[in-house]
Amino acid sequence: MDLMPTAEQDAIRDSVRTFLDAELPMSRVRALLNASGDAYDTLWRGAAELGFFGLGLPEAAGGAGYALTEEMVLFEELGRVLAPGPWLGSVLAAHALADGGQAVLERVIGGTLRVALCADAWGGALRLDGEQLSGVRKSVLGAGLADAFLVLHDDGALFVPRSSGVAVDATASLDATNPVGTVTFTAAAVVRLPTPVAALRRAATVLSCAEAVGGMARTVEASVEYAKVRQQFGKPIGSFQAVKHRCADMAVRAEVARSATTYAAVAVRDDAEDADFQTSVAKVLCGDAYLKNAADNVQNHGGMGFTWECDAHLFVKRSRAFDATLGSRRAELDALVAQFRAA
Fold first, then answer.
1. What is the pLDDT of residues 166-198, one digit of tens each?
2. Residue 338: exposed, middle, or buried by beta-carbon count in 10 A (0-12, 13-18, 19+)?
3. Is the pLDDT of residue 61 over 60?
4. Which helix (H) or strand (E) holds 116?
5. Is the pTM value of this prediction over 0.90?
């Protein structure tokens, strides 16, 4: 199995990075803190014009004909700039809608309909009565910016437009760059989607891991750049062993996390027997690596790393949010242990 990026994947990375560096510099990410959905319209349409939301869809469905491995490249770049908004829900909704709902699908991949993912069972149990959904989901990423919701329910995947039966309340969050909200469904009309929930959850975990890989890679870049210019005792701090070793450890963790996520993406793409196992491994490794890299990045920046002006704290907060989303490391470790016990 060749896990090195292909020429096409490198081209996708270059295209996505060029767009995001222009449209989402860190100053813009900060400016979007607590912004309304209207502030995202231009960004979303620009991403749609480049095919972000249909990258992994078949050409017959209006996509680019790539797969999860190419979507991983996209999400690495999104994580690198701490891109705010319901990117994951929109991409997954496009997949779930590809087998039906063509009119809605066109709006999702066209960038005029943002979809937030309701995957974690935080809040009361959701009740599905025929084609109506009731209940609460807490800590939904990008809830206030979404026009619809993709709900992973025990009875299947559900598409829920934001209508009179859906109320969204903003929730205080540690990670202000990726706002969350509480979504209350009251006999909300739903559309049942044919895509299996397990497949959507695997893809969601892999893509969120890819986003984490991009974030931890950016912390390595930030630490190395700072170590080259910050001086102590007349020398760049990067010449000191303590800083060099931390940067080296950060680079190793980031590469291990990227390798595990790439392997998981290939396993899920190819529907391998161990796809669930590899997905859990990627989540565990990425969660641990992102938390440690974000903390070391603050340490490498010294006193400056603790200030609001320095971007280091934003990655600390995003790493914490990632660790609590789509299954914590503890939950994934429990799942891995259960598989070994069953064997």
1. 999 988 888 989 889 999 999 999 999 999 999
2. exposed
3. yes
4. strand 115-118
5. yes
Give, as one character, the DSSP assignment of residue 4.
S
Amino acid at 8: E
Lowest mean pLDDT among 60-74, 171-185, 256-270, 325-339: 325-339
| Alpha carbon distance 209, 282 (integer Å) | 7
Q: What is the pLDDT of residues 132-148, one digit of tens each?
A: 999 999 989 999 999 99
Token digits of residue 136:
């609460």
How far is it, in rounded angstroms, from Cα 203 to Cα 55? 14
Integer Cα distance of 212 and 218 in angstroms: 10
Locate 46 and state its tokens.
């620009």
- Say what the alpha-carbon torsion angle 189, 192, 196, 202 is, to the nearest 10 degrees: -30
Angle at which helices 275-300 and 197-229 pack, to 10 degrees? 20
In this structure, are residues 115 and 148 in contact, taking their beta carbons and an 8 Å threshold? Answer: yes
Instruction: Give me the count of residues in the chain.
Output: 343
Q: Do 266 and 302 touch, CB atoms closer than 8 A?
A: no
Give Cβ neighbours of residue 137 (< 8 Å, ≥ 6 apart): 118, 120, 121, 122, 123, 126, 151, 182, 183, 185
| Residue 294 near residue 174, CB atoms below 8 Å | no
- All residues at 6 or more sequence positions from 221 whose CB lies less than 8 Å from its CB, including other chains: none
